Amino acid sequence: xxxxxxxxxxxxxxxxxxxxxxxxxxxxxxxxxxxxxxxxxxxxxxxxxxxxxxxxxxxxxxxxxxxxxxxxxxxxxxxxxxxxxxxxxxxxxxxxxxxxxxxxxxxxxxxxxxxxxxxxxxxxxxxxxxxxxxxxxxxxxxxxxxxxxxxxxxxxxxxxxxxxxxxxxxxxxxxxxxxxxxxxxxxxxxxxxxxxxxxxxxxxxxxx
Amino acid sequence: xxxxxxxxxxxxxxxxxxxxxxxxxxxxxxxxxxxxxxxxxxxxxxxxxxxxxxxxxxxxxxxxxxxxxxxxxxxxxxxxxxxxxxxxxxxxxxxxxxxxxxxxxxxxxxxxxxxxxxxxxxxxxxxxxxxxxxxxxxxxxxxxxxxxxxxxxxxxxxxxxxxxxxxxxxxxxxxxxxxxxxxxxxxxxxxxxxxxxxxxxxxxxxxxxxxxxxxxxxxxxxxxxxxxxxxxxxxxxxxxxxxxxxxxxxxxxxxxxxxxxxxxxxxxxxxxxxxxxxxxxxxxxxxxxxxxxxxxxxxxxxxxxxxxxxxxxxxxxxxxxxxxxxxxxxxxxxxxxxxxxxxxxxxxxxxxxxxxxxxxxxxxxxxxxxxxxxxxxxxxxxxxxxxxxxxxxxxxxxxxxxxxxxxxxxxxxxxxxxxxxxxxxxxxxxxxxxxxxxxxxxxxxxxxxxxxxxxxxxxxxxxxxxxxxxxxxxxxxxxxxxxxxxxxxxxxxxxxxxxxxxxxxxxxxxxxxxxxxxxxxxxxxxxxxxxxxxxxxxxxxxxxxxxxxxxxxxxxxxxxxxxxxxxxxxxxxxxxxxxxxxxxxxxxxxxxxxxxxxxxxxxxxxxxxxxxxxxxxxxxxxxxxxxxxxxxxxxxxxxxxxxxxxxxxxxxxxxx
Lengths: 208, 656
Ligand code: HEM
Ligand SMILES: [Cu+2]
Fold this sequence. Notes:
The structure holds two protein chains of two kinds.
Chain A lengths: L9 H45 L9 H4 L2 H26 L3 H31 L8 H34 L3 H33 L1
Helix pairs in contact in A: 1-5, 1-6, 3-4, 3-6, 4-5, 5-6
Chain B lengths: L1 H11 L5 H23 L3 H9 L4 H30 L9 H35 L8 H20 L27 H29 L12 H33 L12 H35 L6 H14 L15 H29 L8 H24 L1 H7 L3 H31 L1 E2 L2 H27 L16 H30 L2 E2 L35 H10 L13 E4 L4 H17 L3 H19 L5 E4 L1 H11 L4
Antiparallel strand pairs in B: 1-2, 3-4
Bound molecules: protoporphyrin IX containing FE and copper (II) ion.
The site of copper (II) ion has 4 residues of chain B, from loops.
């Protein structure tokens, strides 16, 4: 069997071979990420289901309609939608090979995400101040957990984007950084979609 | 000051029970012994370099197997302690509290820390070899999954001597598991131990789906893929759909306990039934997650040892997929008696019975495969044949349980205990034991001793029936599960005594397995062929044990059972195509990050169990640091040069 094999120049093969394999690897990573998003969808699905079951359980405490202040929430929504758009612009810059534009748009996205989080924290503080904390009633437990889980995701996304900006400065655009940018932007859009559900189910339906 | 320390120690360390002191001493001595041996033989760097940081799927598989066998021992000791307590009426061997702790840890350990890791071990040992791949899709993630499982299991296990075991049953129903009725730390150990290892399981699911979908050898269409890999695919799909629900359920329970939330409490508008629905939406698919790979294993073994193609390949694939989907629509059969109403019960009763159809299809396929085959009975085949009647009986009692009105009689009785042990031991455990003896030579390069293996099989097999058949009867006589004692006039004692004897026979079976492994290591029966069973699939084409890169040249596949067909062609005198040239092989580098990061998770969990934020916060920082360190590392791979491959291959084929 072994006799059929011939010796070959390692470096030539490596150059050719290595490229093909890397390409594959990057596409597998993207697929793995999609699967991760499915699992995350199911997690949010479970949280939404819990919220749906418990949303009427105020146990005599303050109700959502009393406490929600919609202007802040609507501002949050616009900020997050805009940040999804800017992360899209970042990807466009990347496709044009423009590192500066890419980093710049990512920075804008991070800033918008951070303002979103700031507003959300302000809202939480306000609610607690008004007497609705996680231990007030089943409704508020479900509310803080669901909205908080989304906020935590956004925070993780922020740290991640900052890390990628640093890597882009060092390595520029290559197959690895390209995949990382693609994945974060997928993640960011996903969080946007989840937020639209939060906005509709948790806030709009409650105050209408 | 001194008083404070004393008070702290009396809460921190579990005291007051001779069994626990015994365990303390045993744990202490083994730690000292391990540290001594490792230091004396200067093995620490070897351990770190070759094992703790490895990303090789075969080594990770071996570590899974070792860890799960240790857990089988722990869970088995728990089982025998329970059976000893129940051997005679009115025994006072275990206190009721201790009994509660033991049935909880037994159930959790057997399913989550024995069956799951043994299954993942097999995934790792077999799948890449069987589909002609050099590795799994994400080797780094694979190592992380293993260490998360490991440190999660450790966290769960220390509860026994530190702080106290959980004692609310393996699914921890609230309000019993809420802070009001379980104020101790046991329940928090449960939550964090399972949560940490569960995240590992989720990632393994993702990893193997991508591996199977993207890394099959060229030419291996899905419908040409070996049956075990199919079963891994269906099990992994079920994992990624079911485990997120578990993650959320445990998180909610923790938030209830830690932050005083009201998801499942009786006051504040909470709803304990929510928990029961959520946990079974994971829990029912979970039992299919562990049984599906066993189906794949039996399919491989039946075909190999009957020297025939698997009968009904397509229907087998269909049955696997049908089961993974249907398993998501049956969860409520676990609480027919809890007032869901007749229509809901009917829906879940019917959906449960439907699962019997694909399962029946599989049993017939195995039987038809054996029919007119040239059957050889080696240990793997023996486990397979032992499994079939077990599974048929277990399946039938399962259908009995799925009849909602009848369940009002069977519910929470020993009938149920007998049923699920029949499927879990007779199906899952026997299946994985079969797999271990079947693939052992491929992994370690030597065969397991046949004679001791047969002894182990017969001890387990006979012990099983002696232990669990009486329990069906006991259940019908009204004995309920989770009772720690009963009275003389109940009339249950003879059957219980028989059952206990059966339990110990299985214990002896386990000892035979340990003996078998030790004996086989000592008197190695080397497998020099790489194909000890005259196998049919790709893993048997490479030397045993498989080299680090698995395949020197990635094979091309044209049909199902490709290796078998090739051997047939060779016998007919057809010369195989010449092998293409060797090329340098691209491999991932080892990494210490998975181990360190998982250890940080352990620290976080331990901190939360004892409400020590000073411990959890650095743990969280450690986790984030590990993630960033990994993200910033671009040098994660290397190439094995052709010369080295040639040397390795020549040595493995014994032609040096
Ligand atoms: C060596 C053989 C085994 C024996 C003798 C044994 C015995 C027992 C006993 C006596 C109980 C407690 C019943 C009660 O009082 O409620 C029990 C419960 C249980 N066993 Fe086993 N067992 C064995 C193996 C296994 C295996 C292999 C699995 C899973 C793969 C398993 C899973 C469970 C579960 C989930 C429970 C329920 C625990 C609970 O009530 O919360 N057992 N077993
Ligand atoms: Cu079930």
